[in-house]
């Protein structure tokens, strides 16, 4: 039987409309993430909150309101909070050690941003040997600009989820996950 952990990546105030990096669909993504977290708590799965800090940047400033975990998904009890400084949640953090100490072999990922820290986290987890499930409607992103081209957030999100589903694990919706 697999031992599962829910990784709640960067659902911090910075991504809401009052923050420096507002994302499209963040409220809906956070509501779905909260449902996944509540389900995990009932089942006794490990829930790990990951928060980004970016010293010297104009966003995710350590100690700022923007760097705090959003009220929709606050940690409860003794749930771990891992602070990271890079998109990859495993880089220079104790995340892998924590998961290994708990004999975790499957991670379920929710959070932000789909094209950055979610993508990096899923790929790193897969590379480290964890089975991955990404809950696509519990993740959010923003429009991106490359040269003269603006890529709408919906396209950015779909592209990342398609790439993850192609090789890096399952990509499913909240309803399908909760029904299992």
UniProtKB/TrEMBL annotation:
<keyword id="KW-0378">Hydrolase</keyword>
<dbReference type="InterPro" id="IPR050272">
    <property type="entry name" value="Isochorismatase-like_hydrls"/>
</dbReference>
<feature type="domain" description="Isochorismatase-like">
    <location>
        <begin position="5"/>
        <end position="152"/>
    </location>
</feature>
<dbReference type="InterPro" id="IPR036380">
    <property type="entry name" value="Isochorismatase-like_sf"/>
</dbReference>
<protein>
    <submittedName>
        <fullName>Cysteine hydrolase family protein</fullName>
        <ecNumber>3.-.-.-</ecNumber>
    </submittedName>
</protein>
<dbReference type="InterPro" id="IPR000868">
    <property type="entry name" value="Isochorismatase-like_dom"/>
</dbReference>
<dbReference type="Pfam" id="PF00857">
    <property type="entry name" value="Isochorismatase"/>
</dbReference>
<dbReference type="GO" id="GO:0016787">
    <property type="term" value="F:hydrolase activity"/>
</dbReference>
